[in-house]
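Practice problem 4.
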């Protein structure tokens, strides 16, 4: 399960409550000031605590990197892979940011999920608003 206290690679420690993220140094960050991705993970965390997430769950993220810096992008990728590895939650992410794709690839390797990580690229067809999707190898 996702821990109530999460420690990232820089040894910054975060404690999650209902409305505040509290860092190890005592700094409290109101969640209303956080980006959409962090609020999405708070919702996922609450669902996890209530036992609503399992291997049948599919979470869809559209542009999860929006309003995030480089370090936060890496943390979102790691949290996503941690949830997949420990709980079995599956994710479908739509992104066009190469930094997010690299972060997800690295996190998938870190959590030994390489075989479960699939990338697809869309190609516009001749029909208006119609796209085809191809696996990226």
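Answer key:
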């Amino acid at each position: 399960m996702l821990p109530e206290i999460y420690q990232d690679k820089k040894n910054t420690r975060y404690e999650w409550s209902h409305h505040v993220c509290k860092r190890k140094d005592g700094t409290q960050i109101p969640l209303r000031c956080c980006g959409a991705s962090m609020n999405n993970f708070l919702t996922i965390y609450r669902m996890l605590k209530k036992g609503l997430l399992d291997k049948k769950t599919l979470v869809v993220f559209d542009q999860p990197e929006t309003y995030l810096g480089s370090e936060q992008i890496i943390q979102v990728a790691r949290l996503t892979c941690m949830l997949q590895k420990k709980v079995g939650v599956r994710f479908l992410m739509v992104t066009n940011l190469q930094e997010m794709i690299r972060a997800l690839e690295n996190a998938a390797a870190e959590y030994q999920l390489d075989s479960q990580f699939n990338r697809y690229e869309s190609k516009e067809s001749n029909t208006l608003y119609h796209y085809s999707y191809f696996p990226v190898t």
